[in-house]
Amino acid sequence: MRILLIEDDSLIGTAIEQALKDTHYSVDWVSDGQSGLLAASTQDYHLILLDLGLPKIDGLKVLKEIRSNRNHIPVIIITARDAVEQRIQGLDAGADDYLIKPFRVAELQARIRAIIRRGQEASSATLTCNDLTLDAAKGVLYQNGDPIALSAREFAMIRLFMSNPDRLLNRNYLEEQLYGWSEEVSSNAVEFIIHALRKKLGKDSISNIRGMGWMISRKQS
């Protein structure tokens, strides 16, 4: 899961970024409203964490601009602005949640999980392809009904493939979805995860077109 963090306080930003990475989220962190708006409009994210007191462009204006572009990505406001009127203003502008600083990182993570669950319920919490069934709500992959033990990155990758069956996914796309900007990605990181998945699911579970990418193909019944 890829998260955009828009926060100008270096101490808070560092703490949030590290905590989310420790729970296997991919995080891109920018420190002003202009950069945040650019990232939100040019990159694909599952969630935005948005401070309001930002340099260059105020966070509330960033949120309104995101929504005016018909971008429905979930947004959690994280701010010290605690007046009831300010909370109402943020929610009316299109925020999905409003968290007042200071807060415990554990509470932020719980709110992120709640928004993820709502999104899964609104779309589909279960993906099926061939002999694989992925239960996104439980975070479990089944093969022929048996649960398969996966790391967080393995689960994230197989979910990408199962969400895009018969679609070739190239290295750049997979790296963007699995890693944040500040993370160092080794040249064979994608191959390493795919190798681990094939070892657990079977060598033919993920096919490769050399030099182009990888995919899961639906088998004809």
From TrEMBL:
It holds the Pfam family Trans_reg_C. InterPro entries: CheY-like_superfamily, OmpR/PhoB-type_DNA-bd, Sig_transdc_resp-reg_receiver, WalR-like, WH-like_DNA-bd_sf. One of its GO terms (cellular component) is protein-DNA complex. One of its GO terms (biological process) is regulation of DNA-templated transcription. GO terms for molecular function: phosphorelay response regulator activity; transcription cis-regulatory region binding. The keyword DNA-binding applies. Keywords: Cytoplasm, DNA-binding, Phosphoprotein, Transcription, Transcription regulation, Two-component regulatory system. Residues 2-116 form the Response regulatory domain. This is Response regulator.
